[in-house]
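Still learning. Any example?
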Amino acid sequence: MQFFNSAKMNVDFVGKRRFFIMISMIAVLVGLASLLVRGGLNYGIDFAGGTMVQVRFATDLNSDQIRDALAGVDLGEVAIQQFEDAEAHEFLIRVEKSKSNLVGLSDEIKTVLDKAFGSENVDIRRVEMVGPKVGKDLRHQGMLAIIYAMIGILIYITVRFELRFAVGAIVALAHDVMITVGVFALLDKEFSLPIVAALLAIVGYSLNDTIVVYDRIRENMKGMGKSDFIMIVNGSINQTISRTILTSLTTMLVLISLFFLGGGVIHDFAFAMIIGVVVGTYSSIFIASPVVISMQPKKK
């Protein structure tokens, strides 16, 4: 199946590479500025430590009513988030303090909520606790996982292709991760372990797209002799664009379904993947290949 006739297609993708690189730099800078302004990411319980209680109510309530009810309990800082499905009347209550006795903490919260809203209206669905040291270790390990993945990719592509291709791929992958993280910072969305998993999946997806283009460039370099390298790269992108769009659209259909139908637990993961697929497809065309072009040895 093809969206375009690759044999007849001749769009000048790399001709506007400086424009798209500038757009990417602006997007990355906006994300970094957002991180500085907000003082970092909005870390979830996985990374920040604390206790999370998932509560379902039989009646329609809002976050302020729940926060007022818990005001008399010494829980430290409290963050309350409603699930996307408002009809479920389900909330995540995140508290700063951690307790080894999770049953005791959930009972304490349930007692207060029962008193405020009636015991028949309150159902504690889930309780999770992460200590601050464990949260810090998880954050550190998550960063290392992404860095090690990048190093492994650099070595793999250097062996399979050339160093300049590896540099192009790493720049594109770093671009994808930074923009995805920047979007989370800009929207103040919670950054948790599932989002780290999403970032690693984005790295793999984007790399796969980039490798397809690189393979075609290498094939065309053998068959086109002394043709101009920019023409070879541009022709290779044109020849693979139908496959790239088909793959991206198929993936997006699944992710959009997860985003709207997967429930609150998987909502942010699907959101991160949607951003990553869009940015990863873009970077394979407008970032990875132009970096390779910029590192092409000049003719003497």
Residues 256 and 270 are 7 Å apart (CA to CA). The two ends are 43 Å apart (CA to CA).
